[in-house]
Amino acid sequence: RYGAIAHSYNAGWTGTWSATNCVFAYNNGLGSSGIAIANAVQNWTSVNCVYYGNVNGSSYGLIDYISNFTDINSIYWGNTGLIFSTPDRYGTKSITYSDVQPAGYAAGTGNISVEPLFLSTNETSSNFLKLSASSHCIDTGTFEGAPSDDMIDTSRPQPTSDAYNNFDMGAYEYGGPGFPQIVNLTTGQSYYNLDH
Question: What tens digit of pLDDT does each residue of 12-45 get?
Fold first, then answer.
């Protein structure tokens, strides 16, 4: 209760919290916030994260009571309830260059609202929440403030020759070594296998 991942409730403490290349999946706030409730945290930053399949209570948001929340290049999909409580309780909130499920958050710069088309939503799969080749989250993020690599240390962006564009949304950069490939032994050309 009061935040499935993080809970800070102390008016005398004003801290910061940040998450980069993280996956928050299948958390249940048991009637409260699906991810975090923090009355005292003043600055909460999220970059290239995935928020998937989380459940929060009817009067709470996925992330609640945060004074200032900023996010870029993330994916919010398959969650139950709103991202923030309504009306918003404290501070300013900004989500940009992210894939946000319909009705989850008002439009922000560079945001899309399209099924992310993950390779797998099964936690036991090695392709859990990695992007398929058809995903609109590929090449639609921003390079400003983005990390230089992803959750499994794949360089961003892919291909690496394009340093100022083609950053992906989410925790995994598409096309890295952790993605399943099929190689044509005659031509040597590689293809990404979307059946995994």
Answer: 556 678 899 999 888 776 655 445 444 555 678 9
Cα torsion through 23, 55, 78, 5, rounded to 10 = -10
Write the burial class of residue 185 (CB in 10 Å: 0-12 exposed, 13-18 middle, 19+ buried): exposed
Long-range contacts, 160-168 (Cβ 8 Å, 24+):
165/139, 166/138, 166/139, 167/73, 167/139, 167/141, 167/142, 167/143, 168/73, 168/131, 168/137, 168/138, 168/139, 168/140, 168/141
Q: pTM of the entire structure?
A: 0.81
Closest CA to 37 of 23, 54, 22: 54
Distance CA 78, CA 63 (A): 15
What DSSP state is assigned to residue 54? -
pLDDT one-digit tens code per residue, 75-92: 999 988 777 765 556 677
Q: Which residues pair with 76 in a beta bridge?
A: 51, 100
